[in-house]
Specification:
single chain; alpha/beta; Rossmann fold; seven-stranded parallel β-sheet; 10 helices; globular; ComplexI_NDUFA9_subunit; protein-containing complex binding; NAD(P)-bd_dom_sf
Length: 257
């Protein structure tokens, strides 16, 4: 069944994987943007989550809103609140929110903001679905790339990740968008739990960047929470694309060396 789907954060990493999949499924897709853009396969709708400007028009006639946009913490709660108000005024479409595994137990400000957004969604009065995912493969690549000018790549010691491919999260969102609101659905994680330093070594080897990797013991509660594995979901390892599969693909090799 074709639906009108509004996507926030449609130009981000997950959004770029999600939007084509929604179109391929036959949905009428609108992507929220703060400025006018060149025509695309989907429709652009202008609105600003920070101020609420234009959101009422963007949400009008939407059957489903998939909320991916984030400011990495600052402003997420206010933006989500603005979107909810616009959705309620538009008649109450199904709101799908993407969150992160373990945000209840890891002492990061960004995670606290995501948890606050979840609470807003849950109490919005709208039909809602929340999907929590583990970190994307791209996060490991980014952690390495931001250190490309250093003589050594540093990673937190005794910390493991369960990275998942962004396309598999997008596939799950397409499924959820086609269904009725399900509230909190099972978490989704990557197929493997591996140590951060090992992932970094594999990434650097794959892109041909010769650099030692040093596992550094870092202080702080957030790191202790990571070491405890609160951000992992080994029992929900639904992903099939491993980090090595990701490295074998074009996305990793397309990065600067």
């Amino acid at each position: 069944m074709t639906k009108q789907v509004l996507v926030t954060g449609g130009t981000g990493r997950l959004g770029r994987a999600l939007v084509p999949r929604l179109l391929d499924t036959g949905h009428d897709v609108r992507v929220l943007t703060r400025r006018r853009r060149e025509p695309a396969a989907h429709c652009w709708v202008v609105g600003d989550l920070r101020t609420g400007s234009g959101l009422a028009g963007a949400a009008a006639e939407a059957d489903v809103i998939i909320h991916l946009a984030t400011t990495n913490g600052r402003g997420d709660v206010a933006s989500t609140g603005n979107l909810i108000e616009a959705a309620k005024a538009a008649g109450g479409p199904h709101l799908v929110y993407v969150s992160i595994v373990g945000i209840d137990y890891v002492a990061l400000g960004y995670y606290r903001a995501k948890l606050a957004c979840e609470r807003l969604v849950e109490h919005s009065g709208l039909p809602w679905t929340i999907l929590r995912a583990t970190q994307f493969h791209d996060l490991i690549a980014t952690m390495c790339d931001v250190q490309r000018l250093l003589p050594v790549t540093l990673m937190p010691s005794k910390v493991h990740f369960q990275p998942i491919d962004v396309t598999e999260v997008a596939d799950q969102l397409v499924t959820l968008a086609a269904e009725s609101a399900a509230n909190r659905v099972p978490d989704i994680g990557g197929p493997e739990v591996r140590e951060a330093a090992e992932l970094a070594r594999n990434y650097l080897r794959a892109i041909g960047r010769r650099r030692p990797v040093c596992a550094v013991p870092l202080p702080g509660k957030a790191i202790r929470d990571y070491r405890a594995g609160h951000h992992l979901t080994p029992n929900r390892a639904a992903g099939r694309i491993t980090f090595d599969d990701f490295l074998a693909g074009d996305r990793a090799h397309g990065r600067s060396r």
